[in-house]
Design brief:
The complex is a heterotrimer, with 1 copy of chain A (253 residues) and 2 copies of chain B (199 residues).
Chain A: E1 9-11, E2 16-18, H1 19-27, H2 38-50, H3 57-78, H4 84-87, H5 91-121, H6 149-158, H7 177-190, E3 193-195, H8 196-200, H9 205-220, E4 224-227, E5 236-239
Antiparallel strand pairs in A: 1-2, 3-5, 4-5
Helix pairs in contact in A: 2-3, 3-5, 7-9
Chain B: H1 2-10, H2 12-26, H3 33-40, H4 44-57, E1 65-70, E2 73-78, H5 83-89, H6 100-112, E3 115-116, H7 117-124, H8 129-138, E4 141-146, E5 153-157, H9 159-164, H10 176-179, H11 183-196
Helix pairs in contact in B: 2-4, 6-8
The chains are: A mainly alpha (253), B alpha+beta (199).
Amino acid sequence: MPIAVRELELDLDAFEGPFDLLLTLVLREELPLREVDLAGIVVAFVERLAERDELDLEACGEFLVLISALLELKARGLFPEEDAELAELEPEEAAEELARRLAEYRRAKEAAAWLLERLGERRDVYWRLGPAPLAPARPEPKLAPQRPDKLATALRALSVEPPAPSLAHMALRFPPTSQFLERWRALLRRRTRVDFDQEVEGLSRVEVAVAFLALLELRKQDEIAISQPAPFAPIRISRADAERSLSWTVRSA
Amino acid sequence: MDRPLRLVAANPVDQLARTIEALLVVASQPLSIDDLVAATEDDSERVETAVGLLSDRYREGRSGIVLEQVAGGWAFRASREAAEACARLYERPVEKGLSNAALETLAIIAYLGPCSRPDIARIRGVNVDGVVSGLVERGLIAEAGRENEFGAVRYRTTALFERVFGLESLAALPRLDDLGADVTEIRARLEAVAEKRPA
Amino acid sequence: MDRPLRLVAANPVDQLARTIEALLVVASQPLSIDDLVAATEDDSERVETAVGLLSDRYREGRSGIVLEQVAGGWAFRASREAAEACARLYERPVEKGLSNAALETLAIIAYLGPCSRPDIARIRGVNVDGVVSGLVERGLIAEAGRENEFGAVRYRTTALFERVFGLESLAALPRLDDLGADVTEIRARLEAVAEKRPA
């Protein structure tokens, strides 16, 4: 049975009830997000995860999307003047945007499910990949004469600084996960095991969050194993090839 | 007197159908009616008649070779009946082990049309670099220019994508509205939950 | 008394022949009798009978698809009477232009001198394996040794490239003084910009 993220029961200072209801109240602006302890929601989710033997990646994905949307809204509320373009977005618009994005993601997931079903229907359909065994030889492709200034234009375009990214879509300007993916990989090439807290010491909160997302991505790609003996206990990371047998298990203290 | 009779007996579309069979058996990709018209130098009405004839002759249950309409054209495939024998001989490198992340990314590109990695990342909420290069490697998506002159590279789905998923064209994807709720619906749903809860 | 008769009527080799048809239409190499025996899990005598049946059905003059025995085994080919149509199918129209991806990649190699795939990927911000292979296949770029003994293969532009772009030599490329004094400067600038571009 997958975890129903939206039915996750929460017991926070500002709110008691299911996650779904919290989202609703936030969307209707009946609950000021600045009073909601988002870390508390994360703890509740992690504890729920810990009750299970295996990792529910599906639920983790959905949870990350929801919680990051909330984080984004909250960050926006806390630092309204940080960016003029951000400040221009009314709370109502921001809530609308959140709802729009939730719907968009859900549709993408449903479309993916449809594709998967389709793949199942095509399971017993085989066709040739590549050229026929006795096909006539393909002649060399011919290219019409080209103007050399097109090359100069192409290179000039590559040398122009990109315009500042548009904030219309409310993307938080996180450092790219790829940066941290590479850092973790480099680190794990030198050492088989590292401690998360030690490695992220001195980084900003946002950077720590992205570093953690990068870890999840590496875990998903089976490059590493992650273990944590109890909530808030140190997170240990090891190279998957160094410790194939170690699966990610989270146990409550 | 003999001659016109012989012409009727030979059924000229039959000869055209034989040529089309030959084209289909060597082609690496589905051939559209336009492709067939160009290669046979015949007219499109006759080509369509011949294709109709062939799709009856090469149909599931009647022949081991099946003619199907897919990815904007016509192509031969093996009959479903022969799937087990095919599985013993052939791998399925394109669709083998497509992850959920890969399917979501494909869905987004197929539905939204050309889009960039940041576009996809925004919807999926995670970095998609690895997934996108994996899909390019499999040939399911390909580059489709940049967002603007200086922007990120955009990707589109390929004919191979349509073939793997058995789509006649991208228009064969179900409408998204039928699949998921839109903004107002999702809000309404959330609010309904709120009202049901005892205060 | 009925039973044996029905078995004969159904002609079990016919079903086997359909499976073999299916295997052959999916194959990208000739299939030997051994291959067919392994895939159908039938016995070789029956497989040979079925192949005999098929080579009669798919023969020159009777069908556009012809079953032919070649060195490696059996394979379908196009009939001789369809040779002209096949040649037209394979004829490639002269391409008017290059894709954005191809043009960017060519420009980088032409201006910066021999570059490896990682070099180009760094500047373009995307994986370039497909584009580079495409340009090699068209003869516009060619391998030019490795970066170092164990490094990545580098590519240079070819004489065909110079012909297509009407250049006497690479020295005749339009100047890019506005981007930097020399290749090193231009390269540094392109790499700096690439880092700022959305992924």
